[in-house]
Amino acid sequence: MSDRSLRITLVGPAYPWRGGLPLLVTDLAHRLTGEGHEVTVQTWSRQGPARLLPTRPLTAPEGAVFPAEPSLSWRNPVRGWRLGRAAASSDLVVVVHYTTIQAPVLWTVARAARRGARVVAICANVVPHERRAGDRLLTALLMRAVDAAVVHTAAERTALAALTDRPISVAALPPHLPDGPPRPPRAGVRGRLLFFGKVRRYKGVDVLLRALAELDDVRLTVVGEIYPDAADVDTLVDRLGLRGRVDLHPGYLPAARIPDLFASVDALVLPYRTATASQHVALAHRHGLPVVATRVGNFPDTIDDGVDGLLCTPGDVADLARALHELYAPGRLEALRAAVGSTDGERVWKTYLETLLTPDDRARGRRADLGE
Predict the structure, then answer these.
(1) Is the domain of 171 the same as that of 236?
(2) How many CB atoms within 10 Å of residue 187?
(3) Within this chain, do residues 20 and 106 fall inside the same structural domain, yes or no?
(4) Co-location of 162 and 29 in the same domain
(5) Does one domain contain both 155 and 218?
(6) Could you tell me the CATH number of the domain that includes residue 91?
(7) Which of 129, 126, 123, 80 is nearest to 104 (CA)?
(8) How many CA atoms lie within 13 A of 64 on its CB side?
(9) Beta strands, E only, 171-304
(10) In which domain, by residue range, is 314 found?
(11) Which candidate among 84, 205, 244, 263 keeps its CA 20 to 30 Å from the CA of 341?
(12) pLDDT tens figures, 122-171
């Protein structure tokens, strides 16, 4: 890690945008400032088309706010070039890549900034879960404009290595949770599961509903924005005869309501078909909940199978039903809840900052070879 104060520009989603990544960018800015660095955050005035990305900002923050300038639009690469030229006076520029819709603008930022600054990309999604023509090309293009990349799982490193020769580091996604202290479990709650977050096909809510149909006397609460690729969820509830056992709450849930929601259920279920890195396990554990999840993304790294949660095969209704039956075996839920502990967040954050701030010798050598 650098032993001197650096001028750092962070480029990515930040308040008033909602979701996990704005919380990550904000927490990262505060922690870098706490290490003595001079930090500027540049965020989006327009993130992308409404059908794919949130377009309605928050009206109140869900955590500590860091000043951010809304200087970017996904439609306007020229603004990205101007930002990059200004950011070139920084020592380090960090661009947060999570959708290829923004990749052309981030490419202009990185290419212009790299004339004077070291540029690192945090790749939250190497290739989108809902893949489109040109995704791999756009990610590869962005990687050509940076010095190095950071990903959150070994699988993501493998995927990115197929698209670039830039140095790629793996650092576990650090916890960046919304405000709100945990609530004690609500008395008398038993037999209620929770799916929480955006409802998209890759997240496997349809698989969860089919598994739920194989259990008796267990209810499910689904809370989150339902995207067009999963719009048949409501129809599936009726087709499976689950209308009396499934509560759908479409829409964004403000962070202030999360503690009460998590106190009203037995466990969080994450039946994803695919994943990269998610902080939902850390969020559940913070609120004392065990997690049932598939073996994708960072779930196997954050769940101790059989201790504080249960893992199963992605896309497999029978195996998910098996895990849910096990959850409700006599004494099993109580044992899992008793074993839930907090993540050593400070240790994870320390490693994350070191990864971002420590230049890779291969990157420096390549820049020298190119005369950059």
Answers:
(1) no
(2) 6
(3) yes
(4) yes
(5) no
(6) 3.40.50.2000
(7) 80
(8) 10
(9) 192-196, 219-224, 246-250, 267-270, 291-294
(10) 192-342
(11) 205
(12) 999 887 776 777 899 999 999 999 999 999 999 999 999 999 999 999 99
